[in-house]
Amino acid sequence: MTRFVKRKRHCCGLRAFSKDLQTLISQLQAAGIDNPRRELTLLIAFLQNRSYTDVFFEPAISGEDFDRLVPLVQRRCNNEPLSKIIGQREFWSLPFKVTADTLDPRPDSETLIQAVLEHFPDHDIPLTIIDFGTGTGCLFLSLLSEYPNSLGVGVDISDAALAVAQQNAGRLGLDQRASFIKGNWAEGMQGTFDVLISNPPYIGLNDLLEDSVKQYDPHQALYAGEDGLAAYRALLPQLPALMHPYSLAFLEIGLGQGDTVRWVAKQAGLVFLATYPDLSGIERVVVFGKSGPGH
Question: Are residues 118 and 193 in the same domain?
Fold first, then answer.
């Protein structure tokens, strides 16, 4: 078991603790944490409610803060995501609150934002947007930040996740254009929307996951039946009723799921329009229109 260093409480600069801090950095490195010095700086910034840049250029830590830092480093060494420890994750250059009740926003999901921007290049257009399985609200709220004349609704079955999304909307100054509704996908929804988005759970029950994901992200937001496709089978048939002829639906998908998702969408009366890879070249987002005039 890893031993963590503690020191007597007294105020001093970072350099006075340099040996002990280096020990913490070494422990993070031994636990397989990438860029451990950066992560330690982020933890100190969190403890002191300072920016990363301030801590990096003007480091100062008290003995009391050091004692509080040690258990946080231990949690990180136990593979708990940094975002879950500090309660925040950046997405689309925006800060989002995260909790144990929400899936961590991931860079691959930014592919969906890029896809919407490509199809709707006019940022002044007044879009109506609906996000199914909104979680933290990162997709929905990032789009609202890009389209200042747009508004919409985030849907989730989890009360706890909806509370987090509502807080994120308020923190980002988007709460006047964002509504949140508890719902099971699109059941009971009415009206039509210009943009329909979703990053549903798409992990199969027997698929392998990293411990940091399996242990700390909510399983309801990860798993979707034996093959990971249950959410698409439930959601896609519900979408045409919420689409007008020029609506577009953007869905994130998992590795190797594109063909099956396209088939399910076709059976639901949707027309496949485009696909977008993530930074690793993996097909990540598929775009559909409603069959008939307009597509």
Answer: yes
